[in-house]
Amino acid sequence: MKIVASALTALFLGVAAAHAAEPAQVKTVGSEQVYTDSHGMTLYTFDKDAVGKSNCDGDCAAKWPPFQANASAKAEGDWTLVKRSDGAMMWAFKGKPLYTYAGDKKAGEMSGDGVGGNWHAAKAG
């Protein structure tokens, strides 16, 4: 019986490892369900981006840091990767590149939502 239980555990862990976890979390910020990074910082989309292309570089990227993907990141489902003009990779949801906002100083803030009419919290659901 122990051998069967061990085999089933190993099989389950192998299947779970084959399915990558989403790179972002869903948190309630105010009354909104939004995506956040692993530190609880709200993620945003930029209206001037094209699907699969970031148009936020230089000073823009200093104020709106890209939601960076590590070298081993793999796209899955609605979560895709976008190559930036500097060669770095960033996460996108449904093709829209994602950013944090330098004006958000702590987890749970959403002060970037609506900035310039072009920035929007990445809403879940």
Give the helices and strands as they follow along the chain: HEEEHEEEE
Largest sheet: 3 strands, antiparallel
Q: Which class of secondary structure composition applies to the elements?
A: alpha+beta
**Shape category:** globular
**Unreliable spans:** 4-19
Number of strands: 7
Please bin the fraction of helical residues.
10-25%
Strand content: 15-25%
Strand order of the largest sheet: 4-5-6
Describe the structure.
This protein is of the alpha+beta class and 125 residues long. It has one domain (23-121). 18% of the residues lie in helices and 22% in strands. It has two helices and seven strands, in the order αβββαββββ. The chain has helices at 2-18, 59-63, and strands spanning 25-29, 32-36, 44-46, 79-83, 89-93, 96-97, 119-121. It has a three-stranded antiparallel β-sheet with strand order 4-5-6, with no helix packed on it. A two-stranded antiparallel ribbon has the order 1-2. A hairpin with a 2-residue loop joins β5 (89-93) and β6. Residues 4-19 have low confidence and may be disordered.
